[in-house]
């Protein structure tokens, strides 16, 4: 019998597909024993719990009717029009589901007072429980499964998807927005771990540590300088080499800071950043991808993946790299054409490469074009991981779900990636005070004469009239400094909000 795992404050319970409402009789799939369980009871604190059978006996007929709210047809209008997630008498505990995992120990303390939390442990959308498809208003997901437009159509009550990680290329964001489903990510976690892992891979490529350690493990004896020269062939000095960073977001910046300590000359390419950031970091900016590839002894990727930069590193761009350069990818597997990389490694055009992400995951080396490549390090999409970073990630994801339940979508969400589909977000005022309320050259003397009450009144009038007041200048992401059009005609870097965490 198919089971859905539902968590409550008192423990974990299994509800079969028959048990779609509280206080129904359920037959255990393993023992055949019949039992009754009140979901409302299971969610109460221990001091307030009442035996479920006693509660069934005492419940009034009208209470039993209240526990089975009428099914409502899905409204396909944007969520900002539909309003916040129902949390009133008819839906006292909205259902939130972890689609592709089974551990909810971090999420439960954050959500147990506002939602029922279930896990599906699904490896594909076909394994998602029917109760989740019909009733879940919130979904948490890792990168195991993909939600296409057809998959999203199966969810009847879904209002928010939280991608537990930074990348959201496994969700059809456009289709979700058109259905009124907000999609959020968690871009700020694991920055230190990914940056540290990137430097670890760079050091391994330069110093050949990985291969030398394997030689010792395999029992090979190295005697004399000639054998050592042969074993360590390809090792290089770091100081004075040029490290090229594609995408200077959170992780890219952290990598740049660390690389400078090792003696790298750091350059970067990011067409979506304002001028001047390079001066604050003491690094060099280039304005085309070709220029970065031509100057770099080592190239590391730290940008998100979308339809414009798929296979950013391909046969055409590899030929623009310095002969014997290193390549590191801890961002997204789809950024690198693995067939082109395999050919370059075998030809020696790329001296060595390290990949933490692959085009197809979980990665199978036996069926990959990289299976016979020399000088290659592959790790299993793990550069983000530490006990601290994962705990922080899950807390941030659960907090976003909580804000969706208690607040208004998308205004209460911190990292909604498809806000443009919600009218309330488009009409919201960006800044609390209109710039006209302040002097252009405001300083201490001007501040002494500034009238806060007048500024607040001016703000209220402006907001009430939906004024199209002048706003603080912001950097346009629609007109980057430059874009490289590859041989396939695709733009060379993803449009993103300077975010390059990789999970």
TrEMBL record:
Signal peptide: none annotated. Pfam families: 2-Hacid_dh (PF00389), 2-Hacid_dh_C (PF02826). Residues 472-503 are annotated as: Disordered. GO terms for molecular function: oxidoreductase activity. Residues 494-503 have a biased composition (Basic and acidic residues). Residues 200-382 form the D-isomer specific 2-hydroxyacid dehydrogenase NAD-binding domain. InterPro entries: CtBP, CTBP_dehydrogenase, D-isomer_2_OHA_DH_cat_dom, D-isomer_DH_CS, D-isomer_DH_CS1, D-isomer_DH_NAD-bd, NAD(P)-bd_dom_sf. The keyword Disulfide bond does not apply. Residues 104-418 form the D-isomer specific 2-hydroxyacid dehydrogenase catalytic domain. GO terms for cellular component: nucleus. SUPFAM superfamilies: Formate/glycerate dehydrogenase catalytic domain-like, NAD(P)-binding Rossmann-fold domains. Its main location: nucleus. Residues 476-493 have a biased composition (Polar residues). Keywords: Nucleus, Oxidoreductase. CDD domains: CtBP_dh. It is found in: Nucleus. Belongs to the D-isomer specific 2-hydroxyacid dehydrogenase family. This is C-terminal-binding protein. It comes from Batillaria attramentaria.
